[in-house]
Amino acid sequence: MDAHPPPRLFPVTLLAVIGLAGCGLELAPAPPRPEADLSALAVSFIDNTVPRDPLPLLAPYAGVMVGIIDSAASAISTIARLDRPLTDTEWTGTGLAGVNIISASTLLTLPASGPDDARRLADPRWRDSAEEMQSASVLVLAAVQARDTQRLRLAADLLKNTCQACHRVFKQGSRVDGRDFASRS
To answer: What is the residue-averaged pLDDT of the chain?
Structure first.
């Protein structure tokens, strides 16, 4: 075991830097800190000083429905029907499913790539349906935050009715399969 303590390099390094600065040698400025750059960028978005268009929705509405909404709505409905106290995991999952539908509702108000999507977007009933679905999902979140199973059941029923009303107006043909959106080789 070495009885000598490790050398203290910081004071020596500091003295060397000060000595070099005194000799007229200029040190290169430190590169900007990445977190400072990201913070400034985030602030610019919040302050709206950098105008940006929304990203395009490169998926058809049917893809949003199958990929996000169907599974989230099914989870909400299934958990709301349980005849026992919900676990923390079930409450959390239900809340996240509600967030997914709230987010997907916004996607349904953007131009999309499906063959009938432009027609749907031009119909005011489409946006009304998206707003109703989002509102029902906000009620799901309120029930989750309150841990109120009765309110959750009511919100799940409202969400189901909202979805079914929209489908009666806009859904044509057979059920879309998720494989329709998967890449094929």
So the answer is: 80
The domain limits of the chain are: 61-170
Neighbours of 92 (CB within 10 A): 12
Cut 0.85: pTM above it: no
User: Is the Cβ–Cβ distance between 94 and 123 less than 8 Å?
Assistant: no
Q: What's the token pair of residue 39?
A: 């913070």
* Plot region of 86 (φ>0 → left; ψ -120 to 50 → alpha; else → beta): beta
Whole-angstrom distance, CA of residue 81 vs CA of residue 62: 26
Spell 34-55 as b/e; 16+ CB within 10 A means b. Answer: eeeeeeeeeeeeeeeeeeeeee
Distance of CA 9 to the CA centre of its chain: 48
Q: What is the pLDDT of residues 84-111, one digit of tens each?
A: 999 999 999 999 999 999 999 999 999 9
Helix (H) or strand (E) holding 124: helix 124-146
Q: Any idea which architecture 61-170 has in CATH?
A: Up-down Bundle (1.20)
